[in-house]
Amino acid sequence: MKFLIISGLSGSGKSIALQALEDMGFYCIDNLPAALLPHFARQIMEGGRDELRNAAVGIDARNHRFLDALTNGLSQLRAIGLGYEIIFLEAEETVLVRRFKATRRKHPLTRQGIALLDGIRQEKILLEPLSVNAALRVDTTHTTPHELRHLVHNFAHSDNTEGMTLMFESFGFKNGTPLDADFVFDVRCLPNPYWEADLRKLTGMDQPVIEFLERDRRVQDMFNQLCGFLETWLPSFEAEHRSYMTIALGCTGGQHRSVYLVSKLAKHFLHKGLNAQIRHRELG
After folding, report:
1. Cα–Cα 20 to 30 A to 256, which of 82, 125, 229, 267?
2. Across the chain, which distance is largest between two alpha carbons, in Å?
3. Considering the domain 2-160 in this protein, what is its CATH number?
4. SS3 letters across 67-110
């Protein structure tokens, strides 16, 4: 069975994540008080009902009065032998503020007379026990609902493959660094196809751009050294029971250099038998 806890900042997409799991056949409960988490887990383990074989619960700041019981609740899950994984969603503060203003929804912590931005920052502190223990953290700042559903779907199925799941993500520094990355590598030192008029409107997946980059020895050196670093250290993270890691590569616009290297790295680790996934943030 698989037991997932969905949490994150208000406005970051938790409802979309739970809906995606429900569409996959998970039994989902939203806004479960943290104190009831062990009781629900026991029902799952002792009930033997097929519809509860895979379950997910949403826990967030809406039940902040119960969050003091969260650490104890998670410890009880481990004590009764139920393995769980946490998916934590977040986004940049400016984006969260814009989303709340667009929907005219109230933030769960502003009911106490707290300003919206202060409520978002207080929420980060309240949910820190879930954030630091998350198996998957997703920055939804630049993520569409379709992309988020795809990420959640892939994670929920990640146990079907042996070893760690690697998400290779390309991005553009001009749009900010991904909040959910475990490793961030800057490849802006490599030759930029953008300055070639014939290549500007293409991407790192197009053959002319690939040929341009592969003519420069520095690109191959960067690829070899990234492979060496990851092959050296990923086993240590896997030994610490990390099942999912995001490796982000950024160039200026996230169109050429980072896209090319992310595609090449994912292909390399797929050939080594790992579950390697790709996300090109700026390409959509």
Report:
1. 229
2. 65
3. 3.40.50.300
4. HHHHHHHHHHHHHCCCCCEEEEEECCHHHHHHHHHHHCCCCCCH
Q: What are 150's two structure tokens?
A: 């795809």
What one-letter code names the amino acid at 156? A
What is the distance between the alpha carbons of residues 198 and 208, in angstroms, rounded to a whole number? 9
Q: What is the DSSP string of 105-169?
A: PPPTTGGGT--HHHHHHHHHHHTHHHHHT-SEEEE-TT--HHHHHHHHHHHHTGGGSSS-EEEEE
For the CA atoms of 45, 48, 54, 55, what is the dihedral angle to 10 degrees?
-60
Q: Give the lowest-confidence range in 45-49, 80-84, 122-126, 169-173.
A: 45-49
| CA separation for the pair 123, 170 (Å, rounded) | 29
Sequence ranges of the chain with CATH classification 3.40.50.300: 2-160
pTM for this prediction: 0.74
103-121 tens-digit pLDDT: 878 888 887 678 889 989 9
Dist CA 35 CA 33 (whole Å): 5
pLDDT of 51 above 70: no
